[in-house]
């Protein structure tokens, strides 16, 4: 790999660039194996130099490392010059080997334990005025030390800082989080005007529980997201399950609705080396296809140290791309192939505008929630909508009420449990202007008051699940499992009934409104899929396919197996179909490509290994070239 030299990484059109060329960051998280989290105090520059040399030889171009606050500011307001000297040396070493740096500042939380500056003494990171000033001064100090380094990719304000005090962080409102992010980002930019700034959080940033969310991150340049299939509120059956490798791209797609996304921690726990390799192959390609501007695997090498945090968390010692003796694990070969692709033949390819939008309302402010708020979680619905769209091969993106909804031919509101009146009015304008809306309700009260938009009204509710056990539309049966609680019973009031429940009441309706149509499904279809193996019980994605047909959604590339993801990326007039088998078994499938110029449809039969990946390249005005290159299996 050629050594990367030149100016800082910048943004243009939502993508990273360096020296005027597209730049995809492919990296790894790093502590030296022998010292772990103690490496700043037990410095071994030769070891770091050797590790970075090997990273670069593998094809990586980024290293993410952690600036432990307690090491760099051992006394309040006093910085250790030896530590900052080692920090500059690390950045120089990385640059010498062609690696960009992603330093994580204010590092306190690591692998389930705190590495607190002793002088913090339990003070609140977000509401203690003196401690806020110390944080501001610290990130300014670090950025000052690194501002002349040409290889700083971005500064991470702090890795998963919500866990430093989870009670306090969960109580913060959106404006408080925006203010904290803005204060620290401003301090970094004052010291290093060319800096990009992010803050990395685990999946709860998307799935709920606190305000450190992408939709509040306008004062940051990127958001950092972590996704591991073993830690989700969803019933992912195993690391090899199709849901597992679809989880990471889901987080990317949710985040991209608001800010560019860097996946700065990814990988798998609780599985053998072969399973981990296959997981990384499919998940990394799918995250890139979803629009991630970079990825960093957790982590570089297994640890030989047995000190904090590994004494308490010994499972954290064995998740490296290298084992403790330096042997390459199969996952490294997969990541090497991925790195070669995204920095080579896929460089500059980005997601195309999507004809399908998924509208997920913002959560109610915590201080305004109460007995009117339905019990349960909104998180599963959007994830399973993502899975159904992936299975239906429909190009989509997440969106919000302040976005240009009219650019989407079809808008999906999955299992909505709360929708404000302004959002309802916004959706009505979308439909009236010619859009097609598919809305599935998630609560009794949410079903009320929709006569104008959906042409239905609530008659009553019932708890007789057998009367609403299923419905059939266009020859496809959709069995339902209801959570305990009232089930709305509706009547049409201007809409037409497309499918009915066993008691004869409407299940699926369609209301013509203005130039468009509003479909109303009186069941939380997406949310009720959150159970082990439930996704395989029926052809749930057929609902999306059939409504998309009416909306006139034209899909450029499809597969006849729902386990196969097909995502089309663009680079000018060039197109690349990223074809991924998310299933744990081999798949034989037929790809169908529909040229935009009206030329005849082309087909190709493929065999994909478990979690296998193929690429298909073509131009909008030409036939496909190089029908596909299957990734080398390990």
Summary?
The longest helix is centred in the N-terminal third of the chain and has 18 residues. The chain is an alpha/beta fold and 634 residues long. It has 15 helices and 32 strands.
Describe this structure in words.
- This protein has 634 residues and is of the alpha/beta class.
- The protein has 15 helices and 32 strands.
- Strands 6-5-4-14-13-12-11 form a 7-stranded parallel sheet.
- Strand 7 and strand 8 form a beta hairpin.
- The chain is globular and about 75 Å long.
- It starts with 9 loop residues before the first strand and ends in a 15-residue tail after the last strand.
- Mean pLDDT is 92; it is low at 1-5 and 623-634.
- This is Beta-galactosidase trimerization domain-containing protein.
- InterPro entries: Beta_galactosidase_Trimer, Class_I_gatase-like, GH, Glyco_hydro_42, Glyco_hydro_5.
- Residues 20-302 form the Glycoside hydrolase family domain.
- Residues 382-553 form the Beta-galactosidase trimerisation domain.
- Belongs to the glycosyl hydrolase 5 (cellulase A) family.
